[in-house]
């Protein structure tokens, strides 16, 4: 089968939002070329035949990012290109820089689609103990404390390299002690659910409004034996969910976090934590105000570049 590639020229900060737009329009997979990812790479086996190559010698973009989505040729994507471009430009209203927001369409052979992202995606240390590893890499932990999250980035967005995901993982490390129950809202690739299990969570539930993301997360859970018991389902935020857990985590846009606040409060035990990320600088005060007005106490704010994550806590019963 041949494919149609739809590539969006955007900014590094808008990568996950653009990926979301493309996936919700039926993309079978996405690949991301982000100029900032090359800043993290060290010499490694990046050559076509496994030879060691200096990242500086690789041909790559030097600024911004390109998010490419892949659609079967049987799917009429041409009619959606205008709408995709409009949605990308609208990201500005959410406080995100959409960059050039240019959309290009190209025909791609099946074998090229299957390997499109492999030359750009390599193991990345996200926190002191967590390293995200693509499913095809034969990577071994460097020490006993290092935990691996294996992902297939061709299935969905959320590979762990974006600041919003890194902040979410750092927030999890801050509050988790082991044995917790966790709900992951807007799970995407499932990276946060897998991390929670690696950190000792007893029970993890994952939800996403996008059925494609749900299927992707399930496949990634199967790549990580510790996460095989994670329960994943399609759902609109926490609508219809009524059970109290220790931690609710959501790496989503600020405007979506705000209506989630009362749902998270209802579904948390007294003293439970609500971890939010995906908050651009311009929306930080909006989210913080919504959390406080919703009954939460703000414990800590984490920052990386122009992105924020917030650790909030539901009051304990004796407070």
What would the keywords be for this entry?
ribosomal protein, 8 helices, Ribosomal_L11_MeTrfase_PrmA, Rossmann fold, 14 strands, 2 domains, 319 residues, 29% strand, SAM-dependent_MTases_sf, Alpha-Beta Plaits, alpha/beta, globular, seven-stranded mixed β-sheet, four-stranded antiparallel β-sheet
How does this structure look, described?
The structure is a single chain. The chain has 319 residues and is of the alpha/beta class. It has 2 domains: 3-115, Alpha-Beta Plaits, CATH 3.30.70.120; 154-313, Rossmann fold (3-Layer(aba) Sandwich). The protein is 26% helix and 29% strand. It is built from 8 helices and 14 strands. It has a 7-stranded mixed beta sheet, sandwiched between helices. The protein has a 4-stranded antiparallel beta sheet with strand order 2-3-1-4. Helix 6 (211-223) links the parallel strand 9 and strand 10 (231-234). Helix 4 runs parallel beside helix 5. The radius of gyration is 19 Å and the shape is globular. The termini are far apart.
What is the number of helices?
A: 8
How are helices and strands ordered from N to C?
EHEEHEHEEEHEHEHEEHEHEE
Spatial extent as radius of gyration: 19 Å
- At the first level of CATH, the class of the largest domain is Alpha Beta
Summarize the structure in short.
The protein has helices spanning 15-24, 81-89, 110-115, 163-175, 191-198, 211-223, 254-266, 284-293; strands at residues 3-10, 29-34, 65-72, 102-108, 124-125, 130-134, 147-151, 181-185, 203-208, 231-234, 245-251, 268-280, 297-304, 307-313. The chain is α/β, with parallel strands linked by helices and 319 residues long. The radius of gyration is 19 Å and the shape is globular.
